[in-house]
Design brief:
It contains 11 helices and 9 strands. The protein is an alpha/beta fold and 317 residues long. It has one domain: Aldolase class I (TIM Barrel). The longest helix is centred in the first third of the chain and has 16 residues, at 70-85. The structure holds iron/sulfur cluster (SF4). Iron/sulfur cluster is lined by residues 39, 41-42, 50-51, 54, 58-59, 97-98, 128, 154.
Length: 317
């Protein structure tokens, strides 16, 4: 029995839900909230253009809620999540735009509000690798002293050609440096990255290199997405002029299998396939609409091909 199968007796990968259950003794769900309305790439920021795939909502699932106070957002989503999943513990997930691209004082106040709820067992924040000031790291350490503190970095790729194509405005070296800094200065912070597959010209070697980079960095978790086309993005313009074709389900399942085969079995997986936050904005591919079917498709592909997370992983000597 390999390490991966010890980690995942019933699944061919290590789901983050298992990590949370082991840590907290029961299921924990995220409540998505937003306190930021911009990021360094949006037009009222540094003047750069948005990432090629990003819509006007900065990846937030509930843009209408940005007009609500943080308390209103927490209470509304907590009710929805509790009714749907029958759960008693929550993370408040600062999801949209670049939450750390705002005053640290505001971030601290928001964290205090979130942690004031008895059933909130931690904070998770999504941000960019180039928006992490020393004061923020201090704030993360303060939270990590008394609660769970998770950081999800929108790395998307460790390949500079891909980062340039998607106009991220940061390099792979900046991502690696940010992760190393967090690991060294905030050792109690749980750190993960978001990665996307489906870039033009992407190769099997690129996918394996991404897994090896995650292993070297000893990440805690990874969230995987297929690159999809949303309305009113520059990617849509490329798609409409046939300069970009989204990856189909079959090759994407192979990418995920390849990535997970080379990934350390100790790294938890948040998500295998992208889901559009607002379905009416999805242009292509249509297969990405069916969340459960896609998830099952990847799992079936892995089982049929005898792939489990870490089956090709070789830990450093
Ligand atoms: S994906 Fe994130 S960093 Fe890129 S433009 Fe959108 S909100 Fe900004």
């Amino acid at each position: 029995m390999n390490e991966a199968s010890q980690n995942t007796p019933d699944m061919p990968f290590y789901p983050v839900s298992r990590f949370y259950k082991d840590k907290f003794g029961e299921k924990v769900f995220k409540i998505p909230v937003a306190i930021a309305g911009k990021c360094p790439n949006v037009k009222d920021g540094s003047g750069l253009k948005t990432c090629i795939f990003c819509d006007e909502w900065g990846s937030f699932a509930y843009p209408e809620n940005q007009q609500r106070s943080l308390r209103e957002q927490i209470e509304m989503h907590r009710k929805r999540v509790r009714e749907r999943y029958n759960t008693n513990k929550f993370f408040v997930y600062f999801q949209a735009y670049t939450t750390t691209y705002t005053q640290v004082k505001r971030v601290r106040e928001a964290f205090e509000i979130a942690l004031g709820y008895d059933d909130v067992v931690g904070i998770i924040i999504g941000t960019r690798p180039d928006c992490l000031s020393p004061a923020l790291l201090e704030t993360f350490n303060d939270v990590a002293e008394r609660s769970f503190m998770g950081l999800e970095l929108g790395v998307q790729s460790f390949d500079n050609r891909q980062l340039e194509w998607m106009r991220r405005g940061h390099t792979a070296e900046q991502s690696v440096a940010a992760i190393r800094r967090i690991k060294s200065e905030c050792p109690r912070v749980n750190i993960g990255v978001h990665l996307m597959f489906g870039w033009p010209g992407e190769t099997r070697e690129d996918i394996i290199a991404a897994a090896e980079q995650c292993n070297q960095l000893q990440l805690d978790n990874v969230k995987l997405h297929n690159l999809h086309v949303l309305k009113n993005t520059d990617l849509e313009k490329l798609y409409n002029t046939k300069k970009f074709k989204p990856v189909e389900m079959e090759p994407y399942a192979e990418y995920v299998g390849l990535f997970l085969a080379h990934l350390s079995p100790a790294i938890a997986i948040h998500r295998l396939v992208a889901t559009a936050s607002r379905w009416d904005e999805l242009v292509s591919p249509q297969w990405t609409r069916n969340k459960m079917q896609n998830y099952q498709h990847v799992v079936t592909y892995m089982r049929q091909n005898n792939i489990s997370q870490g089956c090709e992983y070789e830990s450093a000597p």
